[in-house]
Each structure stands twice: as structure tokens, then as C-alpha cells.
Amino acid sequence: PTAFRAPPRTIPVHVHLLRDTPGSPLHTTLVAADIEAFWPELNRIWQPAGVTLQLASITSERAAPGALPAYPTKDSPAWVQFRFIPPVRSDGGIEVVFLERFSVNGLHTPTAIFLRTRPELRKVPDGSKSPLARVLAHELGHAFGLAHAQPYTRLMCPGTTGTELAESEINQVR
To answer: What dihedral do alpha carbons 83, 97, 101, 24 form, nearest 10°?
Structure first.
């Protein structure tokens, strides 16, 4: 008997490039071309799970007003949620927000995924050449219900360029 394979699915992704006062941690220097450049790598990473990520929109927008913490830490990343107000959408898409400086490479929250413009990753053999694609793929894994995993070559191992998905992870995402 042949194993059941779920049909491929396409998920819309809405990218937000936050703008604020130049020099602010929120003011990303990325432009639409930067996002478009790593998108094929992002889809290559998720292809084994039958997932295609559709770049539905790229919006450059001002961050919501509010105070910034003196030094945001990994233990207190929730502050960023108050500087981005997600739009109401009916397409079931995922909101992804880029900001310049952040205490972690990425953060998955119930309303959006937040990513640092220049993530810091440990390189692994055959790992992703695009740190942005790899960190977004990792945070999408959390959005799909995946937990952190070892070894370092796996996508869900934090802080590395690994992109491998275990068969159990593929099945869970499908």
C-alpha cells in the first residue's frame, strides 16, 4: 500500500517592512527586492512538506507609536507586538514583520512572526545560504506547530543554518 500524501497547500504570506525614525531598532533597511531575493530559498526549504509560501504582499509601513524598552531581551520580546497592528484578513495568511534590531533572530506570536533584519546563525554543512529565508522558515515551523529539535542540521534547531525536516515533521505539517 502507498502512504497517504496530503495535497500540496499554498499559504499566503504578507510581509511588513517596519519604518520608524532612522536608527530606531524598528526601522528596517530591507526593501521589497531583498524579500523577493530569498523567497525561492524559503520555498525550497518547505517543498518536502508540500507547502508553497505565496508572497501575497510586501508593505512598507510606519511602526505604531509607543515606547521602546531600554534593552529588549529574549525574556521580554512581547513589546514588539504593540508596535505592529496586524490587519484583519480573510485569506488565512501569515503576517511577517521585519525590524532592524531585535534580541532574537525571530519570534512567532499568535498575531505575527517578527524577524531581525540581519540574523546571526551558526553555519552547518549544506545549510541555507540565506539567513533570512532560514530564520523565517524556522519561525513558520513554529506557526505550523513544530517544536525545537536536534541535531544542528535540522530546520527546527535554533540558531543554525540547518534546513532538514524529519519525516515526522513533514507529516505533522501536511
So the answer is: -50
